[in-house]
Request: fold
Amino acid sequence: MLKITPDPPETDDLYARVNATPRKPSHTFVVAPDLDTETLLVHACESLASASVMTSDFAALLEGTQRSTMLGIAQIIMLGELAVNQALDNLDPQQ
Reply:
């Protein structure tokens, strides 16, 4: 009898081939290595704040489980934003 579908590749073989190839990071987007920690955290905080607004706005257009999923993502983003804000406060506790 002729088999229509091919056998899947050996998992270990495939894993070894993927890991044998060294990873080359893309240089399309690069963060300037001389930026100080506070500047990086401020940009991260602003990005997370924008992402939070975008996910909340998008969630308003959805219904059911999709809305719940998007609101969950928005909450995770908000938690990240809170952590970054606390890191900023730790750098400059005088404010």
